[in-house]
From TrEMBL, chain A:
Biological process according to GO: regulation of cell shape
Classification via InterPro entries: Cell_shape_determining_MreD
Gene: mreD
Protein family: Belongs to the MreD family.
Name of protein: Rod shape-determining protein MreD
Organism of provenance: Anoxybacteroides rupiense
From TrEMBL, chain B:
Organism whose genome encodes this protein: Anoxybacteroides rupiense
Protein name, as recorded: Cell shape-determining protein MreC
Domain of life according to the entry: Bacteria
Family: Belongs to the MreC family.
GO biological process: regulation of cell shape
Protein keywords: Cell shape, Coiled coil
InterPro entries, sorted: Cell/Rod_1 (IPR042177), Cell/Rod_MreC_2 (IPR042175), MreC (IPR007221), MreC_beta-barrel_core (IPR055342)
Coiled-coil intervals, chain numbering: 79-113
One Pfam assignment: MreC
Gene3D superfamilies given in the database record: Rod shape-determining protein MreC, domain 1, Rod shape-determining protein MreC, domain 2, Single helix bin
Residue ranges of every copy of the Rod shape-determining protein MreC beta-barrel core domain listed in the record: 123-275
Function: Involved in formation and maintenance of cell shape.
Length: 172, 288
């Protein structure tokens, strides 16, 4: 039963992104600033750091692919990025001291890299013509802001829970 | 060099990059249908999404209602004024409809491009990455939704069906940039209809671009823009918006019209997928 809770939580977070964007009050701020919740991505990074790398990469691939199929309809983009970033995150954590603040900071860096990567691909396939300065001010900053809030609220409880989950997993 | 190729991880990375490019190429190809596996995943998540979305919508709806109550008095005043106009219009529409039917009967022309069957659907999700403005609705091929069908709200046209799975469908909003996203439209001027193509969206001005309009066309502000029903499977006469500004285009050979969309692309809860009656009739004949 306990084992099933991790995928369940991942699914809930996966759905919450779409629901948040859909039910957000559609005011001027929403229309001008394109923020993208990356809660699932953050969750995958936290799994990598606090459970194991294998877990993180498997979840990254499965949910990245799900993200591609369900939302963007351009296959492979997120599946590749989530998996790779989970791997890079684990390597980075080996260098730095394992502390929640460091994890949060690295997550923000990872989100930034992800945003640039997706922006690059969108430019490459001609789905957007947004100039880089507009991308910085109208996309990157609001995205970082909304994810900082998420990290601030949920990183600590998620860390505690994931650590416990990792311990239980190792004992078995 | 040999060492480079011996590094297993690097090779894995390179192979997956090649795989990624191939996959992107595959999904950008002009696909008529999604693969069955994609459809299956979409339908399954669609079902789960519906479960989560309903309660969340209720909670959000409550806060919205509180907001609405604040504006009620003002709105009520305006609506009351409108009501009188409405009664007159209603009477006029009724007589015109009757006349139209009679004339059609004389011409023995039963179906026009205007008639459509409405498929009502609820929005169950929105693309959270927001590069492409797409929404997910809870009706799919089983309910008659097909690729490229027009999607409207009571306000007007909002987009078209990008892909349909069995029980869900993705709707691409007019506000997303797509070079293949042409919609044949016309401007209702006093004497004639001026045709053009909706070819894009200006994000800064928040207006649609109607291009390929003849240079000598006399278009004024506030004139209505509607779908023409020519080409594709859109019915005729769905409102798109009204003329905001007319400018000569890049090369000065044709005009470009900025169209202020009639529907709100952001606040969408329920939509109607529009199926042309002519197409429906044809399908039935084919089935026989």
């Amino acid at each position: 039963m306990k084992k099933l809770f991790l995928p369940f939580l991942a699914i809930v977070i996966f759905m919450s992104e779409s629901i948040l964007v859909d039910l957000w009050p559609k005011n001027e701020w929403y229309q001008d600033y394109l923020f993208a919740p990356r809660f699932l991505f953050v969750f995958i990074l936290l799994i990598t750091v606090y459970v194991t790398r294998t877990y993180g990469m498997i979840y990254g691939f499965i949910f990245g692919l799900l993200y591609d199929v369900v939302y963007t309809e351009i296959l492979g983009v997120y599946a590749f990025a989530f998996t790779l970033m989970a791997y890079v995150m684990e390597k980075a954590m080996k260098i730095f001291h394992n502390h929640l603040a460091v994890t949060c900071f690295l997550s923000m860096l990872a989100i930034m890299m992800l945003e640039f990567y997706v922006y690059g691909i969108q430019l490459l396939i001609g789905k957007t013509d947004m100039p880089i300065d507009q991308f910085n001010s109208h996309r990157l900053l609001p995205t970082l802001l909304i994810n900082v809030i998420f990290l601030f609220l949920f990183s600590y409880p998620l860390k505690q829970w994931l650590l416990k989950f990792g311990r239980d997993e190792r004992e078995e | 060099m040999p060492q480079f190729f011996l590094n297993k991880r690097l090779i894995l990375l390179l192979v997956s990059i090649i795989f990624l490019v191939a996959l992107i190429g595959f999904s950008l190809k002009d696909r008529k249908e999604l693969t069955w596996s994609e459809q299956f995943v979409k339908d399954t998540t669609g079902f789960v999404q519906l479960l989560f979305h309903k309660p969340a919508q209720l909670v959000a709806g409550f806060f919205e209602n509180v907001q609405d109550i604040k504006n009620t008095y003002k709105e009520n005043k305006i609506l009351k004024e409108r009501l009188e106009e409405y009664v007159m219009l209603e009477a006029e529409v009724q007589t015109l409809k009757k006349e139209n039917e009679e004339l059609r009967a004389i011409l023995k022309k039963k179906e026009s491009l205007r008639d459509f069957v409405a498929i009502h659907a609820t929005v169950i999700g929105r693309n959270p990455e927001r590069w492409q403005e797409t929404i997910i609705i809870n009706k799919g091929e089983q309910q008659g939704v097909k690729k490229d069908m027009a999607v409207i709200t009571p306000g007007g046209l909002i987009g078209k069906v990008q892909h349909a799975a069995q029980f869900t469908a993705t709707v691409q909003l007019l506000s997303s940039i797509d070079r293949k996203n042409f919609i044949s439209a016309y401007v209702q001027t006093k004497n004639e209809s001026v045709f053009g193509l909706i070819e894009g969206y200006d994000e800064k001005r928040k207006s649609l671009l109607l291009k390929q309009v003849p240079f000598d066309a006399k278009i004024e502000k506030k004139q209505l823009v509607m779908t023409s029903g020519l080409g594709g499977i859109f019915p005729e006469g769905l409102p798109i918006g009204e003329v905001e500004e007319v400018v000569p285009d890049q090369y000065g050979l044709t005009k470009m019209v900025y169209v202020k969309p009639a529907a709100n692309f952001y606040d969408i809860d329920d939509v109607i997928v529009v199926k042309r009656k002519i197409d429906a009739a044809q399908e039935e004949e084919e089935a026989k």
